[in-house]
Write a structure and sequence with these properties.
Elements (H helix, E strand, L loop, with lengths): L2 H13 L21 H8 L3 H8 L8 H10 L4 H12 L19 H8 L6 E4 L5 E4 L1 H7 L11 H7 L1 H6 L3 H18 L4 H13 L1 H7 L10 E7 L3 E11 L7 E6 L5 H6 L10
Antiparallel strand pairs: 1-2, 1-5, 3-4, 4-5
Helix pairs in contact: 2-4, 4-5, 10-12, 11-12
InterPro entries: Cro/C1-type_HTH (IPR001387), Lambda_DNA-bd_dom_sf (IPR010982), MLTR_LBD (IPR041413)
Protein name: Helix-turn-helix transcriptional regulator
Organism: Kineosporia mesophila
Length: 279
């Protein structure tokens, strides 16, 4: 992680806001969208020269207090604020408590037991790299109906590079943005992880969509919400994804998918063809 990452993130944050949104008087002479540096510096209570040095990667130290002031000036949510602090902390000795997430070396046997105890619910488990670490047969049948599972599967690599995934999701673009933003968050938490940076580099080269979305500097943590699918074997259905952190293994998320009871989607879930290999 380099100082330019912090500067790029700050510029991306500024560009998202119109002056009027944050109480800064609008100016018809603006040539570009977003807040000006001087407007943000004034709102944050820092000098323009100091803020400019942060954006240009010339400042080697930014105190937590200054970063908190910038976060307040931009009205950042907790996830975005934590990401800002993580990017800045890689340039110096301090680091926010709990910000670094280590990849688990192995998943506990109890995780497999939990998945086996939920045979009628599609369940996947992934780490912060979006590597698939566990799944039950229904989870594989729902999300990877035609994918080869002979090698370790990464959700992002499969999603961006395998054509069948593009056909599976009704709103592929929105899901792609979410996965990219999750990667951005992980990269800020694990700046020295060569495996993660290598995977990001691979996707930047092989997927123009990923490269475009990566440049937006959006961050998001795994969450819950509805997803509409066009399944090749059971047809169109909507499921609610529920992402839950596995407290016993930091960095692992369990994603269970449910459908409204009695709905056509719930009926189609039960029609998923479970392969002998998956079971």
């Amino acid at each position: 992680m380099e100082s330019k990452d912090l500067g790029q993130y700050l510029r991306a944050l500024r560009s998202r806001f119109e002056a009027g949104e944050l109480g800064v008087p609008a100016d018809s002479r603006r040539k570009v969208a977003g807040l000006r540096r001087e407007e943000l510096a004034e709102r944050a209570g820092v000098s323009l020269s100091y803020y400019t040095s942060l954006e240009q990667g010339r400042a080697v130290r930014a105190s937590p207090e200054v970063l908190q002031a910038i976060a307040r000036a931009l009205d950042l949510g907790q996830v975005e604020k934590d990401h800002l602090m993580n990017l800045a902390s890689t340039l110096q000795s301090w680091r926010p408590a709990g910000a670094r997430v280590s990849r688990p070396l192995q998943t506990p046997d109890t995780l497999d037991e939990l998945l086996e105890a939920m045979p009628d619910v599609p369940v996947l488990a992934h780490d912060t790299h979006l590597d698939l670490v566990a799944a039950n047969p229904m989870g594989l049948a729902l999300y990877f109906p035609d994918s080869r599972l002979d090698t370790p599967l990464n959700l992002a690599r499969t999603f961006f590079l395998e054509p069948s995934q593009r056909e599976l999701y009704v709103d592929w673009e929105t899901k792609a943005q979410s996965l990219t933003a999750m990667f951005r968050l992980a990269a800020g938490q694990q700046p020295d992880d060569t495996g993660l940076s290598g995977l990001i580099g691979e996707l930047m080269v092989k997927s123009p969509e990923f490269e475009r979305m990566w440049s937006l500097h959006q961050v998001v943590s795994p969450g819950s919400g509805p997803v509409e699918l066009k399944h090749p074997h059971v047809g169109r259905l909507t499921v609610n994804q529920h992402a839950l952190a596995v407290m016993a293994v930091p960095g692992i998320y369990l994603v269970a998918s449910t459908a409204e009871p009695g709905s056509p989607s719930a009926e189609r879930l039960q029609l998923l063809p479970i392969s002998e290999k998956a079971s």
